[in-house]
Amino acid sequence: MSKFKKKNKVTESIPTSALPDIIFMLLFFFMVTTVLREQEILVEQRIPQATQLQKLEKKSLISYLYVGKPKDTGRYGTEPRIQANDVLIGTNDIALWVNQERDKLSEAERDQITISMKADREVKMGPISDVQFELREVDARRVLYAAVGRVDQ
Amino acid sequence: MARKKGRMAQEVNAGSMADIAFLLLIFFLVTTTIASDKGVLNILPPKQDPNQPPPEIKLNERNIFNILVNANDQLLVEGEVRQNTVGLSDEIKSFLLNFGAPDEEAQALFNSLPASLRNQAERDSRSSDHPMAGGAVISIKTNRGTSYERYLEVLDIAKRAYFEIYAERVGITADQYRALSGRNAAEKELIDRGKEGIPMAISIAEPDKIGS
Questions:
Q1: For the residues of B115-150, what is the DSSP string, one character each?
Q2: DSSP track, A76-141
Q3: By CB atoms within 10 Å of each CB, which of A7, B9, B73, B166 scores lowest?
């Protein structure tokens, strides 16, 4: 026991003065990586599951299109609607929207624009194919069906 | 200047700094949503010129693997009614790997395949000719009333068959193959070697309106 007591005499204390700095470092990391959602999603979003997911290299090429039943059914009805940016649009506005999105990209990347379709699983193929038809019209043919991973049965 | 209190050397208590920082940290931790940009990639066909009739593609019936999905999410796979998609991926895979009537090029492709794939390849003359362009096409046709979830499930299964073949060809798992980004030359080479000669031929027909 005496041996233990000898050791205990040396008062060791971890210097905590650097703790705020460490915390601040973490804080700045999260502040920088956080992307505050700039748009409110007006349609229901329960993303379907899939197994064969692929990740895209360049995020700047992706534009998002949300399809689903409006959350505010009193104002927008219960039929599936399309949301681009932060407004609900009709199918014939898609061409205009795609061209606007394309203008944001640099000249060389314009033909590589990818539309990430975030559609609710309850949506029927009718509205989806209408969207796809419009996308074909404006030659934005790369479509990514957003999905969440699923472990195989 | 005229502060009397200032004479006393006051030090700001920095002990609670860590607490404040923690509070902020937790706030950002909670609000952060790491955007998931994962999904099933699909390239739509080019738009059709209304003045020109759609190009006639001559394909033998045996070279098309037909999948129809109706408004009740029931499947019709090669003329056979199904309620679920169990085993569909393996069927597609064996359809793709069938060398029913290979020409010279397809024979060369067959010889270049690794032994594990060659063992799976059959020579059924009633199924697809060869997995090269025009030899085997998977056709998915939906109804306007089909649910998006079911459509994605079927597309997912078709893609899975392809990715499994590609991956097996270069000797990695399908998950590893899909994760290849093509960012560097070695990865690009792997991707190309997997795909070479076996293009992904998934045809998605315009949904019909009947019964929706």
A1: HHHHHH----TTS-S-SSTTT-EEEEEEETTSBHHH
A2: H-SS-EEEETTEEE-GGGHHHHHHHHHHHS-GGGGGG-EEEEEE-TT-BHHHHHHHHHHHHHTT--
A3: B9
B45 located within any domain: no
Q: How many whole angstroms separate alpha carbon A151 and alpha carbon B148?
A: 20
Q: Is A120 on the interface with B (CB under 8 A)?
A: yes
Question: Considering only residues 46 to 75 of chain B, which have any Cβ-Cβ distance to chain A shorter than 8 Å?
Answer: 46-48
Is B74 a member of any domain?
yes
- Residue B75 domain boundaries: 61-206
Which of A117, A57, A42, A104 shows the shortest CA–CA distance to B152?
A117
Average pLDDT of chain A to the nearest whole number:
83
In terms of residue numbers, what domain contains A103? 49-149
Give me the residue from A34, A117, A133 closest to B32, CB to CB: A34
User: Which positions in chain A touch B28 (Cβ < 8 Å)?
Assistant: 27, 30-31, 34
List of chain B residues whose C-beta atoms are within 8 Å of the C-beta of residue A20: 14, 17-18, 21
The edge-to-edge listing of strands for the beta sheet with A62-68 is A54-55, B38-43, A142-146, A114-119, A62-68, A81-84, A87-89
Does B140 map to a domain? yes
User: What ipTM score was computed for the predicted complex, to two decimals?
Assistant: 0.75
pLDDT tens for B140-187 read 888 888 888 889 999 998 888 888 888 888 888 888 888 887 778 888
Spans of chain B, pLDDT less than 70: 1-8, 33-36, 54-57, 210-212
Residue B135 vs residue A114, higher pLDDT: A114
Mean predicted confidence (pLDDT) in A63-78: 88
pLDDT at A25: 87
A46/B contact by beta carbon, under 8 A:
no
Alpha-carbon distance of A151 to A63, in angstroms, equals 27
